[in-house]
Amino acid sequence: MPKPRSTPSSQPVESSQGLALYQQIKDFIAARIQDGTWRAGDKLPSENELVKQFGMSRMTVNRALRELMEQGRIRRVAGLGSFVADDKPQSNLLQIASLAQDIRSRGHDYSCEVITVERISASLEIAAALGLATGASVFHSVCVHKEDGVPMQLEDRYVNPVLVPSYAQQDFAQEQPSDFLVRTVLFDQMEHVVDAVMPNAEQARLLDMDPMQPCLLLTRRTWQRDVPITLVRCWHPGTRYRLGSRFRTDGNALAS
Q1: pLDDT tens string 151-182
Q2: Strands 150-159 and 137-147, how do they pair?
Q3: Full-prediction pTM beyond 0.90?
Q4: β 110-121/137-147 pair status
Q5: d(CA 140, CA 156)
Q6: Among 56-70, 153-167, 226-240, which range has the highest average pLDDT?
Q7: What phi and psi, each to the nearest 5 degrees, are found at residue 158?
Protein backbone atom coordinates (compact mmCIF):
# COMPACT_ATOMS: atom_id res chain seq x y z
CA MET A 1 0.00 0.00 0.00
CA PRO A 2 1.29 3.54 -0.70
CA LYS A 3 2.40 5.61 2.28
CA PRO A 4 0.74 8.91 3.18
CA ARG A 5 1.82 11.67 0.84
CA SER A 6 2.98 13.99 3.60
CA THR A 7 3.81 13.99 7.29
CA PRO A 8 0.99 15.89 8.99
CA SER A 9 1.38 18.23 11.92
CA SER A 10 0.68 16.72 15.32
CA GLN A 11 -1.72 19.57 16.16
CA PRO A 12 -5.44 18.70 15.98
CA VAL A 13 -7.60 20.61 13.52
CA GLU A 14 -8.78 23.99 14.78
CA SER A 15 -12.40 22.91 15.16
CA SER A 16 -11.33 20.24 17.68
CA GLN A 17 -10.92 22.71 20.56
CA GLY A 18 -13.10 21.61 23.46
CA LEU A 19 -13.99 18.25 21.91
CA ALA A 20 -13.41 14.85 23.49
CA LEU A 21 -9.88 13.59 22.89
CA TYR A 22 -10.94 10.73 20.63
CA GLN A 23 -13.04 13.16 18.55
CA GLN A 24 -9.98 15.36 18.04
CA ILE A 25 -8.12 12.44 16.49
CA LYS A 26 -11.15 11.52 14.37
CA ASP A 27 -11.40 15.10 13.08
CA PHE A 28 -7.67 15.24 12.40
CA ILE A 29 -7.75 12.06 10.29
CA ALA A 30 -11.05 12.91 8.58
CA ALA A 31 -9.78 16.36 7.59
CA ARG A 32 -6.73 14.90 5.88
CA ILE A 33 -8.85 12.38 4.03
CA GLN A 34 -11.21 15.17 2.98
CA ASP A 35 -8.43 17.46 1.71
CA GLY A 36 -6.69 14.65 -0.19
CA THR A 37 -3.58 14.43 1.99
CA TRP A 38 -4.48 10.78 2.49
CA ARG A 39 -6.27 9.05 -0.37
CA ALA A 40 -8.08 5.76 -0.83
CA GLY A 41 -5.70 2.90 -0.03
CA ASP A 42 -3.15 5.03 1.83
CA LYS A 43 -1.91 3.54 5.09
CA LEU A 44 -2.54 5.64 8.19
CA PRO A 45 -0.07 6.06 11.04
CA SER A 46 -0.16 3.12 13.43
CA GLU A 47 -1.87 3.27 16.81
CA ASN A 48 1.54 3.56 18.48
CA GLU A 49 2.53 6.42 16.18
CA LEU A 50 -0.72 8.26 16.91
CA VAL A 51 -0.28 7.70 20.66
CA LYS A 52 3.17 9.33 20.48
CA GLN A 53 2.05 12.04 18.06
CA PHE A 54 -0.91 13.24 20.14
CA GLY A 55 0.21 12.22 23.62
CA MET A 56 -3.07 10.38 24.17
CA SER A 57 -3.79 6.90 25.49
CA ARG A 58 -3.93 3.86 23.26
CA MET A 59 -7.57 3.37 24.30
CA THR A 60 -8.43 6.87 23.05
CA VAL A 61 -6.67 6.31 19.73
CA ASN A 62 -8.29 2.91 19.32
CA ARG A 63 -11.76 4.37 19.85
CA ALA A 64 -11.12 7.06 17.24
CA LEU A 65 -9.98 4.52 14.67
CA ARG A 66 -12.81 2.13 15.51
CA GLU A 67 -15.44 4.81 15.01
CA LEU A 68 -13.85 5.94 11.74
CA MET A 69 -14.04 2.33 10.55
CA GLU A 70 -17.69 2.04 11.59
CA GLN A 71 -18.41 5.22 9.64
CA GLY A 72 -16.77 3.75 6.55
CA ARG A 73 -13.94 6.30 6.42
CA ILE A 74 -11.14 3.79 7.02
CA ARG A 75 -10.68 0.02 6.96
CA ARG A 76 -8.57 -1.94 9.43
CA VAL A 77 -6.71 -5.10 8.47
CA ALA A 78 -5.46 -7.36 11.23
CA GLY A 79 -1.67 -7.42 11.32
CA LEU A 80 -1.32 -4.73 8.65
CA GLY A 81 -2.86 -1.56 10.05
CA SER A 82 -5.45 1.04 9.06
CA PHE A 83 -6.06 2.32 5.53
CA VAL A 84 -8.20 5.03 3.93
CA ALA A 85 -11.33 3.27 2.70
CA ASP A 86 -12.44 3.19 -0.91
CA ASP A 87 -15.87 4.48 -1.83
CA LYS A 88 -18.56 2.16 -0.53
CA PRO A 89 -19.20 -0.68 -2.99
CA GLN A 90 -22.63 -0.83 -4.56
CA SER A 91 -24.62 -3.97 -5.27
CA ASN A 92 -26.98 -4.20 -8.24
CA LEU A 93 -30.54 -4.91 -7.10
CA LEU A 94 -31.67 -6.31 -10.44
CA GLN A 95 -29.28 -9.23 -10.53
CA ILE A 96 -27.56 -11.70 -8.23
CA ALA A 97 -24.08 -10.25 -8.22
CA SER A 98 -21.06 -12.24 -7.12
CA LEU A 99 -19.81 -10.50 -4.00
CA ALA A 100 -16.52 -12.40 -4.19
CA GLN A 101 -15.99 -11.31 -7.79
CA ASP A 102 -16.90 -7.70 -7.01
CA ILE A 103 -14.41 -7.54 -4.16
CA ARG A 104 -11.60 -9.15 -6.15
CA SER A 105 -12.28 -6.84 -9.11
CA ARG A 106 -11.40 -3.92 -6.83
CA GLY A 107 -8.04 -5.55 -6.08
CA HIS A 108 -9.03 -6.57 -2.57
CA ASP A 109 -9.00 -9.93 -0.82
CA TYR A 110 -12.28 -11.83 -0.42
CA SER A 111 -12.89 -14.41 2.28
CA CYS A 112 -15.92 -16.25 3.63
CA GLU A 113 -16.32 -17.32 7.24
CA VAL A 114 -18.80 -20.20 7.36
CA ILE A 115 -20.71 -20.05 10.65
CA THR A 116 -23.03 -23.00 10.04
CA VAL A 117 -24.37 -25.33 7.35
CA GLU A 118 -27.13 -27.58 8.64
CA ARG A 119 -30.38 -29.34 7.88
CA ILE A 120 -33.25 -28.18 10.08
CA SER A 121 -37.04 -28.31 10.39
CA ALA A 122 -38.63 -25.27 8.80
CA SER A 123 -40.43 -22.80 11.06
CA LEU A 124 -43.84 -21.50 10.02
CA GLU A 125 -42.24 -18.38 8.49
CA ILE A 126 -39.56 -20.25 6.53
CA ALA A 127 -41.95 -22.97 5.40
CA ALA A 128 -44.38 -20.35 4.06
CA ALA A 129 -41.58 -18.52 2.22
CA LEU A 130 -40.41 -21.74 0.56
CA GLY A 131 -43.86 -23.19 -0.10
CA LEU A 132 -43.29 -26.15 2.23
CA ALA A 133 -45.17 -27.67 5.15
CA THR A 134 -44.24 -26.45 8.61
CA GLY A 135 -41.55 -28.73 9.99
CA ALA A 136 -40.37 -29.83 6.52
CA SER A 137 -36.64 -30.37 6.13
CA VAL A 138 -34.66 -27.40 4.74
CA PHE A 139 -31.00 -26.48 4.43
CA HIS A 140 -29.80 -23.53 6.48
CA SER A 141 -26.46 -21.74 6.19
CA VAL A 142 -24.94 -18.66 7.81
CA CYS A 143 -21.82 -17.00 6.37
CA VAL A 144 -19.92 -13.77 6.89
CA HIS A 145 -18.39 -12.34 3.72
CA LYS A 146 -15.30 -10.18 4.22
CA GLU A 147 -13.28 -7.66 2.21
CA ASP A 148 -9.65 -7.46 3.33
CA GLY A 149 -10.73 -9.11 6.56
CA VAL A 150 -13.52 -6.60 7.26
CA PRO A 151 -17.08 -8.04 7.41
CA MET A 152 -19.20 -6.66 4.56
CA GLN A 153 -22.20 -8.98 4.60
CA LEU A 154 -23.88 -11.41 6.99
CA GLU A 155 -25.80 -13.98 4.95
CA ASP A 156 -28.57 -16.11 6.48
CA ARG A 157 -29.93 -18.53 3.86
CA TYR A 158 -32.62 -21.22 3.65
CA VAL A 159 -32.68 -23.59 0.66
CA ASN A 160 -35.30 -26.00 -0.64
CA PRO A 161 -33.54 -29.42 -0.56
CA VAL A 162 -35.83 -30.81 -3.26
CA LEU A 163 -34.31 -28.43 -5.82
CA VAL A 164 -30.76 -28.31 -4.42
CA PRO A 165 -30.10 -31.70 -2.78
CA SER A 166 -26.30 -31.26 -2.68
CA TYR A 167 -26.32 -27.84 -0.97
CA ALA A 168 -25.06 -29.00 2.42
CA GLN A 169 -22.09 -30.86 0.88
CA GLN A 170 -20.52 -27.71 -0.58
CA ASP A 171 -17.41 -25.94 0.75
CA PHE A 172 -18.66 -22.36 0.97
CA ALA A 173 -15.29 -21.12 2.14
CA GLN A 174 -14.15 -21.83 -1.44
CA GLU A 175 -17.30 -20.86 -3.38
CA GLN A 176 -19.87 -18.57 -1.85
CA PRO A 177 -23.46 -19.90 -1.69
CA SER A 178 -24.92 -17.50 -4.26
CA ASP A 179 -22.19 -18.36 -6.78
CA PHE A 180 -22.87 -22.07 -6.29
CA LEU A 181 -26.63 -21.61 -6.69
CA VAL A 182 -26.35 -19.44 -9.80
CA ARG A 183 -24.02 -22.03 -11.32
CA THR A 184 -26.14 -25.08 -10.54
CA VAL A 185 -29.81 -24.02 -10.39
CA LEU A 186 -31.83 -22.37 -13.14
CA PHE A 187 -34.09 -19.71 -11.61
CA ASP A 188 -36.66 -17.76 -13.59
CA GLN A 189 -38.09 -15.41 -10.94
CA MET A 190 -36.44 -13.25 -8.31
CA GLU A 191 -37.73 -10.92 -5.61
CA HIS A 192 -35.68 -8.31 -3.74
CA VAL A 193 -36.81 -6.29 -0.72
CA VAL A 194 -34.55 -3.77 1.04
CA ASP A 195 -35.10 -2.47 4.57
CA ALA A 196 -33.14 -0.32 6.98
CA VAL A 197 -32.89 -2.23 10.27
CA MET A 198 -30.96 -2.25 13.51
CA PRO A 199 -28.86 -5.39 14.02
CA ASN A 200 -29.32 -7.54 17.08
CA ALA A 201 -26.34 -8.17 19.35
CA GLU A 202 -25.23 -11.35 17.58
CA GLN A 203 -25.53 -9.82 14.11
CA ALA A 204 -23.52 -6.79 15.24
CA ARG A 205 -20.86 -9.09 16.71
CA LEU A 206 -20.53 -11.10 13.49
CA LEU A 207 -20.34 -7.90 11.43
CA ASP A 208 -17.87 -6.31 13.87
CA MET A 209 -19.99 -3.16 14.07
CA ASP A 210 -21.62 -0.89 16.61
CA PRO A 211 -25.08 -2.34 17.40
CA MET A 212 -26.43 1.22 17.48
CA GLN A 213 -25.57 1.70 13.80
CA PRO A 214 -28.16 0.66 11.14
CA CYS A 215 -27.86 -2.09 8.56
CA LEU A 216 -29.20 -2.44 5.05
CA LEU A 217 -31.14 -5.70 4.97
CA LEU A 218 -31.59 -7.27 1.54
CA THR A 219 -34.14 -10.10 1.48
CA ARG A 220 -34.14 -12.20 -1.68
CA ARG A 221 -36.30 -15.09 -2.86
CA THR A 222 -35.87 -17.06 -6.08
CA TRP A 223 -38.14 -19.49 -7.92
CA GLN A 224 -37.92 -22.13 -10.63
CA ARG A 225 -41.21 -22.61 -12.46
CA ASP A 226 -43.08 -21.14 -9.48
CA VAL A 227 -41.34 -23.46 -7.01
CA PRO A 228 -39.34 -21.50 -4.38
CA ILE A 229 -35.61 -22.27 -4.38
CA THR A 230 -34.13 -20.12 -1.66
CA LEU A 231 -34.83 -17.43 0.88
CA VAL A 232 -31.81 -15.37 1.95
CA ARG A 233 -31.39 -12.36 4.19
CA CYS A 234 -28.20 -10.33 3.84
CA TRP A 235 -27.25 -7.71 6.42
CA HIS A 236 -24.77 -5.01 5.34
CA PRO A 237 -23.33 -2.37 7.71
CA GLY A 238 -24.88 0.85 6.43
CA THR A 239 -21.58 2.71 6.75
CA ARG A 240 -19.75 0.20 4.53
CA TYR A 241 -22.20 -0.70 1.78
CA ARG A 242 -24.94 0.62 -0.47
CA LEU A 243 -27.52 -0.95 -2.75
CA GLY A 244 -28.71 0.43 -6.08
CA SER A 245 -29.32 -0.19 -9.75
CA ARG A 246 -29.24 1.52 -13.08
CA PHE A 247 -31.60 0.18 -15.73
CA ARG A 248 -33.23 1.00 -19.04
CA THR A 249 -36.87 1.94 -19.23
CA ASP A 250 -37.60 -1.46 -20.84
CA GLY A 251 -36.64 -3.03 -17.50
CA ASN A 252 -33.28 -4.50 -18.57
CA ALA A 253 -30.40 -3.87 -16.20
CA LEU A 254 -27.27 -2.05 -17.25
CA ALA A 255 -23.87 -2.90 -15.88
CA SER A 256 -23.31 -1.06 -12.60
Answers
A1: 999 999 999 999 999 999 999 989 989 989 98
A2: antiparallel
A3: no
A4: antiparallel
A5: 8
A6: 153-167
A7: -120, 135
Q: Of 54, 84, 114, at which residue does a domain stop?
A: 84
Mean predicted confidence (pLDDT) in 70-94: 72
Domain enclosing residue 125, as ranges: 90-244
Residues 19 and 103 in one domain: no
Do residues 151 and 145 lie in contact, with contact meaning Cβ atoms separated by under 8 Å? Answer: yes
As a three-state string, the secondary structure of the chain is CCCCCCCCCCCCCHHHCCCCHHHHHHHHHHHHHHCCCCCCCCECCCHHHHHHHHCCCHHHHHHHHHHHHHCCCEEEECCCEEEECCCCCEEECCCCCCHHHHHHHCCCCEEEEEEEEEEEECCHHHHHHHCCCCCCEEEEEEEEEEECCEEEEEEEEEECCCCCCCHHHCCCCCCCHHHHHHHHCCCCEEEEEEEEECCCHHHHHHCCCCCCCCEEEEEEEEEECCEEEEEEEEEEECCCCEEECCECCCCCECCC
| Residue 80 and residue 163 in one domain | no
Contact residues for 35 (Cβ-Cβ < 8 A; gap 6+): none
The two beta strands, 90-92 and 215-224, are unpaired
Range 228-255 average pLDDT:
70
Query: Average pLDDT of the chain?
Result: 83
From 84, 104, 135, the end of a domain falls on 84
Phi and psi, residue 182, nearest 5°: -60, -35
